[in-house]
Amino acid sequence: MDSQFLEVTNVTKTYRAGAFKRKTAALDSLTIAFPLHKCTGLFGHNGAGKTTLIRLIFGISNPTKGYITLDGTEIEQMDRNRIGYMPEVDKTANVLTPWEILLNHCAIFRVENPRERATTALRRVGLLASKDKKSRELSKGMGRRLAFAQAVIHEPQFLVLDEPFSGLDPLGRAEMHGWINEQKTRGTTIILCSHELKEAYALCDEFNIIRKGRLVYSTINAETEQLVHAYVLKVRAVTVDVLEQLRDDQQLPAWQEVVQEEEQVRVCFAAYEQAAPWLTALGSGGYQIAAFNDGGEQLGSREDLLKFFDLGEQVA
Fold this sequence. Notes:
alpha/beta, Rossmann fold, Alpha-Beta Plaits, disordered C terminus
C-alpha cells in the first residue's frame, strides 16, 4: 500500500494467561492500514486488541509474527521522535508541575527553544496559569489538556490519541476538537480511539473496526467491504451468554457481531453460509426466532456502520 503511512501486516501477538498459562491471541493475523495525513478512527469493544496494537506501534512489546512499517520502514528501526502519544490514563509524575513535565519532554525529544515551546503549549491548552501546580493537584480535565500538550509539543508526524475527550467539560471538548483539527491541518497522521462517537464521526476521515484481534471492517481495506451487507438473525427470550454456550457446544460459525436488545438478541453475519447453521440449530433447539434478514440489510453510511457494530458506550 504505497499510499499508506502506517501498515500492520499479518501481525499476531500471543501471550499466556490463566492458571494453566494457555496461549491466547490478542491480535490474530491482523492486517490494517492508516492513511497518510488523515485522522483514522480505531474502534472495537473492550478486549478487541486496540491497546495491544498501540503497544506494538510504540515498541513497548514486539509482535509474535508479522511486522509493522511506517513510511516503508519497520517500526522498530524508526526514529520515535516522529510519534506522539496521548494515553487514555494520565501517567505524569505527581510531584512534577506541568512546566517541568513539558521541559523534561522537550529534553527527551531534543526540542529546540524548550522554554518558549513549553510556554506556547501551556498557553494553547489553557494551563499557563497553572504551570507551577503539582500535577496531582490538576483536575482530570486539566490533566487531559496537559497530556495533549505533551503529545504534540515535539510536532510529531504520527499521533495516537486514546480517549482525548474523557473528563472534559463541553468547552474543553470543543477546544480539543479544534486542537485535533489543527493537527490534521498541519498534516499529522492521527489514530483516534474514543467512546465519543459523535466527536469521532466529525473528526475521522476513515474508520477501522477490530474485534477479537481481527479487522472486521475498514473504510480503507476493500477486502472487508462484504460486511456492509449484513445477515441479521433475531432470537427472542435469550441472552448472549446462552448463544455463546450454544455456539461452543455445537461448534457453530462465529458471528460478526452480537447485540443484546432488551428481550431479544440480534446476531449479525457477513455471509449466509455462516448464518444457515445457526438457523438449523436454533430451530431444532426450540429457540424463538423472531426474524431473519437474508442479506437485504444495506448499511451504506458511516453512521449506519457505527450503529451496526453497536459501538455505543462499549467502545474503548
